[in-house]
Write a structure and sequence with these properties.
single chain, alpha+beta
């Protein structure tokens, strides 16, 4: 039986915290920043937790 391989692309985009939560950086802070308000870019900085609906799918991609 072949081994399950972890999805390398997902591994680069998300990380698992010490408590087991999966966090990612929100989209929309790479380009066209002049057109976005400072409030919006501040809100997009940092990390946020993956939604409950996606957690099972992401864990499977990570091989957990």
């Amino acid at each position: 039986m072949p081994k399950m391989k972890s999805h390398t692309g997902t591994g680069k985009r998300v990380r698992v915290t010490g408590g087991g939560k999966i966090v990612h950086e929100p989209a929309g802070k790479r380009h066209k920043l002049e057109g976005k308000s400072s409030t919006r870019t501040r809100r997009l900085s940092g990390t946020e937790e993956i939604s409950k609906a996606d957690t099972k799918r992401i864990k499977k991609l990570l091989g957990r």
